[in-house]
Amino acid sequence: MNLCLGIFDLSSVVVLVLIVVATSKLQDAGAIVMFSSRCYFLLLVLAPFFAAGCGRGPAMSEVEGTVKVKGQPVDGIQVEFWPDADGPRSRGTTDGQGHFVLSTDDGLKKGAVVGKHRVILTDVGILGNKILGRAGEDVDMTQGKQPRIADAYRGPQTSPLSKEVVAGKKNEFELDVDPRGG
């Protein structure tokens, strides 16, 4: 939940209340004017830093589900949700029951951005426990194993899958895919 209040967030409102309380405690009228003008100047200088708290990023919602091929759960499938709007991509990998839970690429936020997404599936299970880094993107590390899902699911322009993540609830998706694509 975003607690932004216009240009100020909740912390700047607290600071403003403290300033008002402090100025009301002073007895000398000259001291009040001098104290409050310094405080208001300081508040104006610090306002951009307080307002930075308003940029918490796009709304996120929990996402989990299962991936099945011909009705059977599949392990080792990397599931990626690419938002149609601005926001971070989310991903997860299926376990032995085909279950996945999404989090952002950096792992700092659970779920996916609220809104429509293109869903990308990659069979990383055929790689075994090997880590495929940038240098290995074009290297065949499958040792002749065939992917259990079609190549069409691997790209944002070619994947036929799309899902919408709804705010305020756990989104659960069952992805039953055709091993030939489509």
Give a summary of the structure in a few sentences:
This protein has 182 residues and is of the alpha+beta class. Helix content is 21%, strand content 27%. The relative contact order is 0.16.
Structure description:
With 182 residues, the chain is an alpha+beta fold. It folds into two domains: 10-54; 60-177, Carboxypeptidase-like, regulatory domain (Immunoglobulin-like). It is 21% helix and 27% strand. It has two helices and eleven strands; from the N terminus they run ααβββββββββββ. Helix 1 runs antiparallel to helix 2 (29-51). The longest helix is centred in the N-terminal third of the chain and has 23 residues, at 29-51. The radius of gyration is 25 Å and the shape is elongated. The model is unreliable at 1-9 (pLDDT under 50).
Descriptive key words:
alpha+beta, Immunoglobulin-like, five-stranded antiparallel β-sheet, four-stranded mixed β-sheet, elongated
Beta-strand fraction estimate: 25-35%
Q: Could you tell me how far the N terminus lies from the C terminus, measured between alpha carbons in angstroms?
A: 38 Å
User: What is the H level of CATH, i.e. the homologous superfamily of the largest domain?
Assistant: Carboxypeptidase-like, regulatory domain
Mean pLDDT equals 77
